[in-house]
Design a protein that fits this description.
The chain is of the alpha/beta class and 348 residues long. Helices cover 40% and strands 19% of the residues. The longest helix has 19 residues, at 19-37. It binds adenosine-5'-triphosphate.
Length: 348
């Protein structure tokens, strides 16, 4: 074992529901990987949401905001958002507070896992702060409620630029802007015009536009026709869950919320209360989010070690969680990834 040479301070939000189980598994795997690559993690853990409110009277305690501001990087488990009332989504509040305008979600198969669409490699780039997520709703008169969809030239141009920059940097060939501009002519129309303007600066990336409902059908018929999906906030949310099914479900797909100053890494899935506390949750999605985080903090060797261990466990297929056809629990899965990383011949 190599002595730790470098320490990264990372804000950790374990979350609720399956959050503490999946984040516990991920921390364990990262600690083991770091011990071998000479990397230490100084975790700064904080509650958020209902748990935080019970203890501190605040849904997002000030110390959590301060910690993210200082560390600039957070790993976040899911935090339950009450349906149809209650407090505002913690996820949405954090994204707005730290201007995390880009939500980056790679959808890729893991080896050994049988799916209907092998070899899929899609990226969803979702605008993260505007649209119906602006949270502007009010009752006009009893029985009539209005929700405002906010689309701005600044926000649309910024997310389009992010998607095209990513495509250029990573040699991706094609971007589809997803919209409903036939109905929402002004708002989605503005989003499309911004995408078209940005696309002109990137002639090497093919640019297309698809209507969102057609996109759902096209995705199920032939997801291989897509490379990068560039979407507004709500369409991106729905398409993310849909696309997760192509590679094995919500337990697998990671995500990064990126801004100019800070970044929060979290899985696509929510708190899954139906399986919470049962040692059933698949930590792969949060683990792959942590791999994105390790690349973000410029620790590729540790990122590759974790990814290699994870892929080895899937390749062997002996210690998988129930959602992907296995019989193992969260803890056994995490132990298997650690063992795979430490096996002779594993990547350094
Ligand atoms: P949200 O709207 O808060 O993102 P959601 O509607 O996407 O939540 P989830 O809480 O993510 O819903 O879960 C949907 C279902 O998917 C759960 O009931 C659970 O059965 C399954 N699921 C989600 N995440 C996982 C996971 N990590 N491991 C195993 N199953 C999961």
């Amino acid at each position: 074992m190599t002595a730790a040479k470098k320490t990264h301070r990372i804000t950790l939000i374990p979350g609720d529901g399956i959050g503490p189980e999946v984040s516990g598994a991920v921390v364990k795997i990262l600690e083991a990987a770091g011990a071998a690559t000479g990397l230490a993690f100084d975790w700064h853990p904080y509650d958020a949401g209902a748990n935080a409110f019970e203890k501190t009277g605040e849904y997002i305690p000030k110390v959590l905001y301060d910690s993210i501001e200082k560390n600039r990087v957070a790993l976040k488990g899911p935090v339950t958002t009450p349906v149809g009332g209650g407090f505002t989504s913690i996820n949405v509040t954090l994204r707005k507070k730290f201007e995390l305008f880009a939500n980056f979600r790679p959808v890729k198969n893991l080896p050994g896992l049988k799916t209907k669409y092998p070899g899929l490699d899609l990226v969803i780039v979702r605008e993260n702060m505007e649209d119906l997520y602006a949270g502007l709703e009010h009752e006009v008169v009893p029985g009539v409620v209005q929700a405002l969809k906010i689309i701005t030239e600044k926000g649309s141009t910024r997310i389009a630029k992010f998607a095209f920059d990513y495509a250029r940097k990573h040699g991706r060939k094609k971007i589809h802007a997803i919209h409903k501009a036939n109905i929402m002519k002004l708002s989605d129309g503005l989003f499309l015009r911004c995408c078209q303007t940005v696309a002109k600066e990137f002639p090497e990336v093919a640019y297309h536009e698809h209507i969102v409902d057609n996109t759902c059908m096209q995705l199920v018929m032939n997801p291989y026709q897509y490379d990068i999906l560039l979407t507004e906030n709500l369409y991106g949310d729905i398409l993310s869950d849909l696309c997760s099914a192509f590679v094995g479900g919500l337990g697998l797909v990671p995500g990064a919320n990126l801004g100019t100053e800070c970044a929060i890494f979290e899985a696509v899935h929510g708190s899954a209360p139906d399986i919470a506390g049962k040692d059933m949750a698949n930590p792969t999605a949060l683990l792959q989010s942590a791999v994105l985080m390790l690349h973000h903090i410029d620790e590729p060797a540790t990122a590759e070690r974790v990814q290699a261990g994870l892929e080895q466990v899937y390749r062997e297929g002996k210690t998988l969680t129930k959602d992907v056809g296995g019989t193992s629990g969260t803890k056994a899965f995490a132990d298997a990834v650690v063992a795979a990383m430490e096996a002779p011949g594993a990547a350094a």
